[in-house]
Amino acid sequence: MKISKIHLTIATLVTILILTSCNEDRFFDQENPNSITSETFWKTEQQFNSGLTTVYGALQFQSISGGELQFEMALGDIAGSESWYRPTAFRNLTYTDATYYVTDKWNELYIGIFRANQIIEFIEKADESNFTGDSKAQIEAQAKFLRAFFYFQVANTYGGAIIHKGIPKTEEELNKPMSTIADVNSSIIIPDLLFAQNNLPRTWGADDTGRVTWGAATSLLGKVYLYAKDWPNAVTQFKNVVESDLYQLTPNVMDNYTDENEFNSESIFEVAYSAELSPGVPGGNVDDTPSNSGAEASTMATALGQLSFGAYNTLLPTYYLHELFTNDEVDLTNPINDGNTWSKRMNSSIVPINGEGLYYGLEIGEKGGWAFGQSAYIKKFTNWYSLKAEDSRNRSGINFRHIRLADVYLMYAEAVINNSSDFATAITYIDLVRSRAGVKTLQQYMDENGGMFPQLHISKQVHGTQPLVTASPSNVMTHIQRVERPLELCYEGHRWKDLVRWGIVKDVFTELRADEVWRTENKTALAIDDNGIAPLFIKERIRPDFFLAVDNYDSTTHDYFPVPAQELQTNDNFNN
Known about the structure:
- The chain is mainly alpha-helical and 576 residues long.
- The chain contains 25 helices and ten strands.
- The strands form five sheets. Strands 1-3 form a two-stranded antiparallel sheet. The chain has a two-stranded antiparallel ribbon with strand order 2-8.
- Helix 7 packs antiparallel against helix 8, helix 8 (135-158) packs antiparallel against helix 10 and helix 10 runs antiparallel to helix 11 (214-227).
- The relative contact order is 0.13.
């Protein structure tokens, strides 16, 4: 059973959203005294809190926090797909400005922005006497945080955004030109987050679990500065979170992507889903309308779970990610592992044929799979630990965590290196994450190897060895980029944006395509026609995840999605 959280049902608010966005002549001269209008609704604290649920509700859109994220996850180096699955257009970089996810995410983010703008615009005019305590500022701060989050997603997905600070009332206000990421940051995201930071509480009571906090605003602000390469400000914001003592890593890393310990000590910004509310409604039906009940559920588990257990496995771990997990050497002195061969984060993130424990209640391999090039399947954000199969209506109650403490630790480590070359401090925070995973820390490797550690991202299967490198700002940064963030945060929505902001997409694709070619040319040695050999046990064929992506990739074209065709066609003031 889930703990208390904001209930996201919003059917009664849809009429208000429509009324406050239209400016048409009334059909009758006399008003209906029982009708809800913007003049009668946006008055009380309760009404603004009801409106605020619609803004939180927009987070549930599948392109923002749910199963449709699979398309964006397919872009980087951690997820492959097959040619008959829809994510192939993203894996191969053949999507266009009219492709469904490209248009859906834009539309859903702007719905969230519109809803946040309503709160912000009307609360500025609201009578202070209608609110108790600090509630007026806190409601505005929540709306501004959410607006900043939506704009961060637009700007860093599409390479900029069309800025609307209020509700457009004319065609001119609606059709505005595209602004750069820097302009969006300075004009709306950073001011919104500073306001949120100054007006949100550090914690909420049990009845308000799920509302955004000071920690969420501070963490996202640090992330904005990190992406902008403003290292001093990024360090300051992340340090404030790290030293706040508000958050701790969960002892069990798996608690961050199941429904059994949600809103835990590590959670900083988390989107609520439920498999129990609105029973029977398909998971894809997210938003409530007067004639349709929203599911309140996520479709991610069905997208990522294995085909043999009622899901679609439209994404598959790349050989690169799978081998990264096998390279994550278990620290036998760390009691976290409790005798496991593989790390806790491998056993809770992916499932290879030689994995450990039960999988959907059965021994691994008891049902079909792990052939035709599939070396592993995704566990993270699926219900493998509690169900016999995924729900036939694509419903999952697993919350989606947009920001958690391990992510902040790794972003802090990155900011510190870039700000002051202090790789020793960076290693401290990297090793907190590694120690929780139950694997050897960088410091342990260095103690054993005269201050050196292995380049764990290099395929031992392909290259035979992993060279040792001396700890330095550059080498520790490479470890963050190529090892720690993909291992800790795979399938959590960060990877493509990370690769793009670091400017290493082409290098990574080239390297991983070369590994594919080597494996294809050495099929006999790898026993591909039999049962495969360790560590991946690839059978039947080598899946060509990077065959087209490496040649198709062009930074100017693919680092950010194109602005949807519908916007180009309807917005006369749009500029590229």
